[in-house]
Amino acid sequence: MEPIDAPLVQRIEACIEQLFVPPDEAFAQNLVDADAAHLPSINVTPNQGKLLHLLAKITGTRRILEIGTLGGYSTTWLARALPRDGKLVTLEINPDHAAVARKNLERSGVHGVVEVQVGDASELLQRMIERRLQPFDLIFIDADKPRYVDYLRLGLKLSRIGTVILADNVIRHGRVFEDHPEDPNARGAKAFNLAIASDPRLDSILIPVFREKVDGLSLSVVQSLNDPSAPM
Ligand code: SAH
Ligand code: DHB
Ligand code: MG
User: Fold this and answer.
1) What pLDDT digit, counting tens, does each position of 118-173 carry?
2) Cα(60) to centroid of ligand 3, in Å?
3) CA–CA–CA angle 64, 165, 198 (5° rounding)
């Protein structure tokens, strides 16, 4: 893939952030604490956080499922779009990440609507499906990329018609469009993109997201719950 004009794109991103993402002490401290606890800096960008927040608001979302919490940065953006009686369930395999997230969510004042569940996302999702949990209005997938297709399959079982399904890191600087990506994360995201593009239950698109490199957010709406792979 061709290099993009990184300085220009970064300048534009900074200008958008300056206009639409006012400085916020809770978000700033969230990232400082995540860094101090040696969490990787792989949270969504501020502009992408704002986009997630707006998507939740636009859809009148009351129930959110997030897969991959890290320090709770994207969690906070999403939770702040919820009404007071809304609910966000976020899944995190690493107890150290979950501990940082819980502290951050409390400081952000959203801990009342957020439940952090610690464990492997596939197992936690399976448990929710077995308990016949009420469907979610919005699902944000952002954990281990090689299992994105699995998270989509399980997430659909926790959806209703109209549920919005989002996934982070679906462009990986264009590596997802190579025939055989070397990087397992790009391979996972590529398989996910093919799945959402071809699944008749979904209507989808990818939105490029600019950081140091180009990555992306997928956006899907559930338009049917008839599983094409299920036996008749
Ligand atoms: N959504 C966060 C970033 C998440 S990074 C934000 O933008 O702020 C991905 C997270 O997924 C990491 O914290 C990692 O520990 C977690 N993760 C990886 N594999 C997982 C699994 N199998 N189940 C649950 N969480 C997992
Ligand atoms: C990376 C970025 C992410 O947003 C993520 O969820 C996982 C990994 C990365 O750039 O390596
Ligand atoms: Mg991500």
Assistant:
1) 999 999 999 999 999 999 999 999 999 999 999 999 999 999 999 999 999 999 99
2) 23
3) 160
Dihedral angle at the C-alpha atoms of 51, 54, 60, 66, nearest 10 degrees? 40
- Among 44, 59, 9, smallest CA distance to 167 is for 44
In angstroms, the CA 5 to CA 199 distance is 34
Which atom of ligand 2 has the smallest separation from the CA of 68?
A: 6
How large is the C-alpha radius of gyration of the chain? 17
CB 138 within 8 A of CB 52: no
Query: Mean pLDDT over all residues of the chain?
Result: 96
pTM above 0.85, yes or no: yes
* Of the options 3.40.50.720, 3.30.930.10, 3.40.50.1820, 3.40.50.150, the CATH number for the domain spanning 6-222: 3.40.50.150
What is the H or E stretch that residue 63 is in? strand 63-67
Distance 168 CA to ligand 3 centre (A): 5
- Output the CA 50–ligand 2 centroid distance in Å: 18
Q: Lay out the sheet containing 138-141: strands in order across.
A: 114-118, 87-92, 63-67, 138-141, 164-168, 214-222, 202-210
Pocket around ligand 2 at a 6 A CB cut-off: 42, 142, 168-169
Distance of CA 214 to CAs 9, 13, 99, 100, 135, Å? 10, 12, 30, 28, 32
